[in-house]
């Protein structure tokens, strides 16, 4: 029976209200089990409370290792042999011409990413070993004739048979780079006593300047864009000289403030006085207080050189005066000059910057909202980044000289959360032990088989410091999403860059002999697809090159599966501590030839 509204109504049958004894018995039994369950669950809750408190390991260490389906990656077509995803000339027409911003980083969206292996050029050979590689490389490894035809008269390089030879010439050093640097050392004595340790060469050519400085104890980052010279940075890395793709355009360079001891431009064609001197302001930002800026070429020595520059003496005088005025406004002083070289020094005295507080002064002081070390897709601004006055030991005149500088806790380590002199010392000791173990697992470390090395996610540069006596150099990479430890790396006399491993690195294919990572996938797996990170590693490591992948046990097997699909050979090893929660993969990329000719 139902009401008019459809809801059930009370039943009129009296017998239907009687509850059989059997049903009552079942209800009572069920109630007793319910009370017993409450008691047992309460008892278990109190008994397991202390156990839960004692478990310190993260869930990832006890979880079932990540398993993925094996995939064999195809080979990209041969026209991708020098593919640089974020500086791809094929995409330049999509971006603006203003200040050559099309040459900056423009990474492809996810749906355009390549899932194939970048092939070597036809006839590729294992690179010539260091130090012989500084003077010659295989033509087929970097098969570009344009730079040879355009610059052979300036002795940048010349082709002989199957090789390119590098005689050490340059636009502004026709007598050779050695004589050029000798003159520079006469002007800057600090280059000879361990004061100057790190340098940046903007518009580096084939990096002969940086190559010469290696023998003088100075570590240089050679910087050039992917331009119509085709392969400046690729030539540098093929020679075994540190280099990275980059351009001063609309965004900051990927380095922290107050990092380099010296900056150099040898007729690098950067219009220093244009756009309000914004490019000079970026050099000022990355140069350490007391650091040197060296310029050779126009408008230096304009009285004697102007006829060869297709200009007039009046125009060159005006450019030089404008340059000097801009540098003075940024607290640079002319340090020394001779022939074609002029040297300015950035002030170590912060009182110089007081003038920037005056109204209508240009360039003005940057406001506090602009982080000095923010340098990953950060726009350039027309203002002066004033060094932190609290830092008393970071200026070039105050920092410890090389090589003692390498193992001295930098002042800026206190800016890192949890950073201190003791944590720095502990990190140093830890990496000494780890690298000793690595050399047992990979005896090629320390030999001429490994020259160009990258630490893909460093903290304080401890891995690089432990390798400093070996015939190699290390590019220290700090994630743009991690703690800002890159200033510490530079302060101890090492080099590095910011990067986000969800994107491609700013280098050519086949440019590193060894890649090292320590828990990178554990740290970044929530943001970055592991497959694309490993494909990027395959792009930049040389055939027959190596990777040391130190990871949690959760990721190791999955990494090995992907690596097999990239034609790598890997073996799993214990760490120096022999713990189960962490393992080491020692991998080697195989040398193979491309079967593909059509675009993929």
TrEMBL record:
It is found in: Endomembrane system; Membrane. It comes from the Eukaryota. The keyword Membrane applies. The chain crosses the membrane at residues 21-39. InterPro entries: Put_SAM_MeTrfase (IPR004159), SAM-dependent_MTases_sf (IPR029063). One of its GO terms (biological process) is methylation. Keywords: Glycoprotein, Membrane, Methyltransferase, Signal-anchor, Transferase, Transmembrane, Transmembrane helix. Pfam families: Methyltransf_29. GO terms for molecular function: methyltransferase activity. Gene3D superfamilies: Vaccinia Virus protein VP39. Its EC number is 2.1.1.-. Belongs to the methyltransferase superfamily. Coiled coil: none annotated. It is a single-pass type II membrane protein. One of its GO terms (cellular component) is trans-Golgi network. This is Methyltransferase. SUPFAM superfamilies: S-adenosyl-L-methionine-dependent methyltransferases (SSF53335). The keyword Oxidoreductase does not apply.
